[in-house]
Every structure is written in structure tokens, then in C-alpha cells.
Design brief:
Blueprint lengths: L5 H10 L35 H10 L1 H14 L4 E4 L4 H13 L2 H15 L1 E8 L18 E8 L3 E3 L17 E4 L10 E3 L3 E5 L5 H6 L7 H22 L4 E6 L3 H7 L1 H20 L10 E6 L5 H16 L3 H4 L12 H18 L1 H16 L8 E4 L7 H20 L5 H10 L1 H4 L7 H9 L19 H5 L17
Antiparallel strand pairs: 1-10, 2-3, 2-7, 4-5, 5-6, 8-9
């Protein structure tokens, strides 16, 4: 018996019709009922592999630019809030170093090119170390870290023949990334995976990821059909503007005049020139009594609704609300768009936690050692700053509540004055107040002697004397000791 080929089996599967759904054969409704919908399907066009096309779309389409840039900008816009047992001056030193080295700008570019091309890595630039060797954090000296270098998937080649075999979240990923000669830096170098922060575009299943050389796919690939539909609708609407006001001029015996030519045709052309001249200057139309002039108006009703529907599909495909993507005011009674923006910010927070937390943790571990010369404390942690901006009233309320709580803890003796000042200054990036508390103020508070609790004897007072009695002095400055009352 002749064995059936794989291609024949695939054709049979493709021609098979599913009947496990609603059907009305008489009306040809439902899958497999013989309607035009049965011919529908999904093709496969791996546009992520066409680098030039992705770049042309990114450069020419503002919607494509928004799809790539908006998430990246919002994920890196506010930075992080450092937490842990660290004095405020060290936190400020790390924040200044992050700004000086433009770390968040580099992370933003890494996310952009990952979304555009399907993948990108940010290389940790550590002076004096071989990038091919595994990163050892304990070898980083003060001042060695020089920043990040984003390299997209088209300038680095992952070593798919040499994968990570150690158990962990990186298992199965490339162990090295080889930089091509046309890159903007580190040309022809081999970089160990521990020295990069990797960001993928849209995650793909295993076999599709293998087809993409181990990377994800561009965010523009899923958006493509909606993007073409939106731009086609917009351009079509723009072309209708030229036809919004059509005028027709019926000339008696026009066909004979054109066929005759000569002075008759020249007279017709001269007449049309005079009509245009006087219509522009005087608003008059000169024509023969048998001629007929008509103006036709084009109706644009329903066009705006259609364009809005395509815009909403674009918004849904990208995952960015209309109020953020198009910058338009939300429609509807009492609509503010606040709920849409909050939901979008929640999605951004999810992407931050999923795609940036591990990399940012490694980044600040390196930055801590390079800037402060020591490893971070065990309590070190961070949180991504919220994107929702508080109003001045909300900031004032939070500032008042925080100040009241900190002052209350200080007055009750739970914390000393220096700790209270540190807490006040550390909350200044949220409340906008107490930012002028200096290191000198904190140092002066640390050098103050601890207050004596009421009823406790002073160290310099005699036995049996209380702090109040020991502090009582006459005008001359000598302490006065009260004699105990005699019995009887």
C-alpha cells in the first residue's frame, strides 16, 4: 500500500471543515455551511524578519511610532524608588549617578528597539573587564561602571549552538552574543549573557522563536492589517476633500464643437476661461441660454464614525487608550478618561515587573558597587514609581499626614530626631516638601545628646536626685540640692 505523503495529509486537513458549531445549511450560516466565510483564514507573513520594512514603517507612520515609543517611554518615565536601610545621601548619590550615566534613557531605547525589531540587549559597560567572561559582582571597583549600550537583534548574533544549561530562568537562552562589525560599539566582540539586560518584543512559542533566531516578534506585525486599514481610511477621506464640491457645465452641441475644432473650439475654451475669471472675482457665471451649470455637494456623514471605529481597533491592537494614543478628549457625559488611563498604567506596571525588574535589579547592583564602593545592603529593594500624577491637593494631604506621623513618632521617643529628618527628606520626592533638609542638619541632629526621660536621675546629680532637681540652678549657676525633709 502506497504511503500517503505529508503534503497530501496537510491538504486533507486544510480542506476539512469543522461542524462542531452553530449551522443553518438552508441559510448558509455558520462554519462549514458553504458561505463566503468558509474561505476565510489566517496567513503567515513574518514581517519581523524584514528589517528595512520595519524601519520604513517606523519612520513614516506616526501610529507605528506611537506603538513602539509610547510603552517604552512610559515604562522608563518615572524611574524607581529605592528602598532599604540606606541613608538619604547614598540614595541621592545613586539617583544622580543614574542621571549622569543616562541609564533610563538607555533602557528606554532598549525597550523601543525590542518592540520594533523583536529583541534588543543593553550591555553593561564595565571598564577594564573582558566582556566575554561571566560577570562577577565582587570584582567591580568604584568608578568602573560607565553606562549601558543598547544593541538590537540585527547587530548582535546569539550563539544558538551554545545555550545556557544551568537550571534557572535563563536556561535555554544563548550563552553569548556576538556583535557584528557594523555595530555602534563593541564591534566583533563576544559578550557573556550575564553582562546584558535582554528585552524581547512579543513573546513567541518555541518553534516560532527558533524561526526568529531566538528572539520575539515586532509589535507591528500583529498591528499590520489594522494599521493598513486605518491609514487607507484616512487617506481615502483626505482624497474626498478634493471632490467635496463638484461643478458640471452642460454645453449645447459640445460634441460637434469639439469635432469641428478651429475657431469654434477656441471660442468654447475662451468662454470657460471667462467663466472661471468672473466666478473668482465677481461670483458671476456667463453662459449661453441653452447651457446648464450645476454644483454638487458631497456628504461626509458617517465618515467620522467609521474613522473612529478604525482608531478604536488600532487602540485595542496596541493596548493604548485613545486618550493617550491620539490625545483626544474622551466622549460621553461626564467622561474624563481617568479609568482608561489608570487601566493602561496598570498594564505598564505589569510590563515593568515582567520585563524590567530582573534587569534593573542587576543594573543597580552594579551601580551600587561602582558608585559607593560596596555591595548593597541585604534590605535593598526598589519599586517602580507610579505613573499617575497626583494633584497639588493630594500632595499636600499626603505631606501633612506623613509629617504628622513622623513628628508623632519622634515626640513619643520611637525614633530620634535624626531619623525623623531622614524620613522627611526621603519622602520629599512624593510630597514636594522637606527637600531642603541638608546632610548638615541630619549630622547635627545625630550629635545631639539623647533627651532625659522624666523622673530619671541625671548622671551628674547626686544619689536620690531627679533630673528636674539636678537641673535647677540659682542665678550664679551652681546647682541647688534640696535637703530631704526630716521625719517628725
Amino acid at each position: 500500500m502506497k504511503r500517503q505523503t505529508r503534503a497530501a495529509r496537510n491538504r486533507q486537513v486544510a480542506q476539512a471543515k469543522t461542524v462542531d458549531s452553530f449551522q443553518n445549511l438552508a441559510a448558509r450560516v455558520g462554519m462549514g455551511a458553504g458561505s463566503q466565510n468558509d474561505a476565510s483564514g489566517y496567513g503567515f507573513s513574518p514581517m519581523s524578519r524584514n528589517r528595512v520594512q520595519m524601519e520604513f514603517v517606523y519612520r513614516s507612520s506616526w501610529i507605528a511610532g506611537q506603538a513602539v515609543d509610547t510603552y517604552a517611554d512610559d515604562m522608563t518615565r518615572q524611574g524607581i524608588e529605592l528602598k532599604g536601610d540606606m541613608p538619604p545621601d547614598q540614595i541621592e548619590s545613586l539617583e544622580k549617578a543614574a542621571g549622569r550615566l543616562m541609564l533610563w534613557d538607555a533602557l528606554g531605547d532598549t525597550i523601543k528597539w525590542a518592540r520594533l525589531y523583536g529583541g534588543c540587549v543593553a550591555v553593561l559597560l564595565i571598564d577594564g573587564q573582558n566582556p566575554e567572561t561571566p560577570l562577577r559582582l565582587d570584582t567591580i571597583q568604584k568608578g568602573q561602571f560607565k553606562g549601558l549600550l543598547p544593541l538590537d537583534r540585527w547587530v548582535v548574533q546569539p550563539t544558538l549552538q551554545d545555550l545556557i544549561t544551568e537550571l534557572g530562568p535563563n536556561m535555554g537562552k544563548p550563552k553569548f552574543y556576538e556583535v557584528i562589525a557594523d555595530a555602534q560599539g563593541l564591534m566583533n566582540m563576544k559578550i557573556h549573557y550575564s553582562r546584558v539586560i535582554r528585552v524581547d518584543g512579543v513573546d513567541l512559542p518555541y518553534w516560532q522563536r527558533i524561526a526568529e533566531n531566538g528572539w520575539g516578534q515586532s509589535v507591528l506585525e500583529r498591528l499590520w492589517d489594522r494599521l493598513v486599514a486605518f491609514d487607507s481610511t484616512t487617506e481615502g477621506a483626505a482624497q474626498l476633500v478634493y471632490k467635496a464640491h463638484l461643478r458640471t457645465y452642460q454645453v449645447d452641441g459640445l460634441r460637434e464643437i469639439i469635432a469641428m475644432g478651429g475657431k469654434a473650439f477656441e471660442g468654447l475654451v475662451k468662454q470657460l476661461d471667462l467663466i472661471r475669471l468672473y466666478q473668482s472675482n465677481e461670483g458671476l457665471t456667463l453662459m449661453d441660454a441653452k447651457d446648464k451649470f450645476e454644483a454638487h455637494q458631497y456628504s461626509f456623514s458617517g465618515l467620522s464614525d467609521m474613522m473612529l471605529q478604525f482608531g478604536q481597533q488600532i487602540s485595542g491592537a496596541i493596548g493604548i487608550p485613545l486618550v493617550r494614543l491620539f490625545g483626544q478628549s474622551p466622549a460621553g457625559l461626564n467622561a474624563t478618561g481617568e479609568s482608561d488611563i489608570r487601566n493602561y498604567y496598570d498594564n505598564v506596571k505589569q510590563q515593568q515587573e515582567r520585563r524590567l525588574r530582573t534587569g534593573v535589579g542587576k543594573l543597580y547592583d552594579v551601580l551600587f558597587r561602582s558608585e559607593l564602593g560596596r555591595p548593597p545592603p541585604d534590605s535593598f529593594d526598589f519599586e517602580f514609581c507610579p505613573l499617575w500624577q497626583m494633584s497639588d491637593t493630594e500632595k499636600a494631604t499626603i505631606a501633612q499626614n506623613l509629617t504628622t506621623a513622623i513628628v508623632g513618632a519622634s515626640d513619643s521617643g520611637l525614633v530620634d530626631r535624626a531619623t525623623a529628618l531622614k524620613e522627611l527628606r526621603q519622602s520629599s520626592h512624593i510630597t514636594g516638601v522637606w527637600s531642603n533638609v541638608t546632610d548638615e542638619d541630619i549630622k547635627e541632629a545625630e550629635e545631639e545628646p539623647p533627651p532625659q526621660p522624666e523622673g530619671m536621675p541625671d548622671e551628674n546629680a547626686g544619689p536620690g536626685a531627679t533630673a528636674e532637681a539636678a537641673n535647677e540652678k540659682p542665678a550664679g549657676g551652681a546647682a541647688v540640692r534640696k535637703e530631704p525633709a526630716k521625719a517628725g
